[in-house]
Amino acid sequence: TRIVVASEEVFVKHGYDLIICNTFDKPEREKAILNRMIQQRVDGIILTPTKMGTENTKLLRKVGMKMVVVDRPLPGVKDFFWVATNNYGCGFVGAHYLFSKGHKRVAYIGWNSGIEDLEARKRAFFDAADTYGISQDSLIVAEGGFSAEEGCRLTSYVLEKHPEVTAIFYGFNIQALGGVTCLSQRGISIPEELSVMIIGSPEWIMAGKNGFTHVDMNDLELGRKAANLLLSQIQAEGDVPFQHIIQDCSLIEGSSVRDIR
Length: 261
Hints:
Blueprint: H1 2-13, H2 27-39, E1 45-47, H3 53-56, H4 58-63, E2 67-70, E3 81-85, H5 87-100, E4 106-111, H6 116-131, E5 140-144, H7 148-161, E6 167-170, H8 173-185, E7 195-199, E8 213-216, H9 219-235, E9 244-247, E10 250-252
Parallel strand pairs: 1-2, 2-3, 3-9, 4-5, 4-6, 6-7, 7-8
Antiparallel strand pairs: 8-10
Helix pairs in contact: 1-9, 5-6, 7-8
């Protein structure tokens, strides 16, 4: 991901190698990886935690391992280094844009992660609707797993069960990838027949003929901040004060949202 690329650039400049491990968002795999990193005595860890992150990082925090948490917090833990994007802000910016273009029948497709900070995207979707006087009864929410396949399945569900929808708001770009593929396979024209908004900015979003309106979480800057924060701990002679850095997102206007006012 762009976060990893940006982090690695910082570490390489300072003579450090980066070991990349993927938890696939599975708590048991996360725990095994973290325990292995302790045994290998790595200098520090950048972690995007699973929903069991608080429990799985308990030993790391106990032994004083240098660590920066990215994107998702550690519920119940106050003292840790955290770099994240304002998830509520991402949801509000994207939803607000759709409603400002006249869309009142909107479906939010998201991930049922069980992680409170990520749930803020959906909460912001409803709050943005309230600012336009749009009833929640006219909004659709479809949630499932964190994969392109699930994005396709959820998109199919929305199209079949709620044909009145004029726009789909994808809360996660992994699901959006499958969803957009599904729309293409069904021959649905974007934005003429259906408008699309996406949170995230993977390369495919603006590649080739694609020009999706999306919320940029500024992943590169997130990765640089996380790396520099970890380096400050590793290179410091004494303790470094804990920091929580929450950065804003930005709307990138493409051609995937039709103005129906």
